[in-house]
Amino acid sequence: MEIQFQSDIGRRRQMNQDYANVFVNQAQKSLAILADGMGGHLAGDVASKMAVNGLGAAWEASDISDSEKVAQWFIQQIQTENQKIYQEGIEHPEMQGMGTTVVSAALFDDNFTLAHVGDSRAYYVHDHTIRQLTDDHSLVNELVKSGEITEEMAAVHPQKNVLTRSVGVYGTVEVDVSHHTCHTDSYLLLCSDGLTNMVSEERILAIIESDQTLAEKTSQLIAEANEAGGSDNITVLLIHFGEEVPE
Known about the structure:
Layout: E1 2-8, E2 18-24, E3 30-38, H1 43-61, H2 67-91, E4 99-100, E5 102-107, E6 111-117, E7 121-126, E8 129-132, H3 139-145, H4 151-155, E9 176-181, E10 186-191, H5 193-196, H6 201-208, H7 214-227, E11 234-241
Helix pairs in contact: 1-2
EC number: 3.1.3.16
GO molecular function, one term: protein serine/threonine phosphatase activity
Cofactor: Mn(2+)
């Protein structure tokens, strides 16, 4: 298994409020995390780093070695980070209301577990197909699912950035958790909406299936989002499940 990630400010933002990292626990299992922060001043930047580093520290201290225990771990730990971020906003009024998306993957031998809140996405690429594994927690996605607007209308909707769930809210946050099997020579992509708002799924698939190295694929995804306008921060975390995946 190989992992590459890269984050870029894009072409229109003053600062990068995305954050990503990979952590290894006591059982030598990896956790990949990506967060897209929101809030004025430095607040979004603070929220995304708090979420990633907080989850990462808890993962490093754990000895989870398979998918059985990880779902409950995700729900509890994301709730803990939710409360910390909310409290930080209360204690620092200039950061009040800050929050972040989270999409995270716990990686095991032949499977992975995803947890997410918000509209940062996970995609699985295998056998010339790309499949979105996460469901956007956004106003426009709710409107699409209810049949009020089409996918095409959603792409240009004036409220497309309005989230229905984020980390950093009062009370409890609902976390979506799902388990997935991985195959030899497949890919898992975690990304912020700075990529998916700029680059089509067809183009993402073509880049991931190209003959470049994993680092080059990651860089090209970011480059093409910038070439398309780079209207937001862009973060790409790409995982390749190599030849050793047990079938």
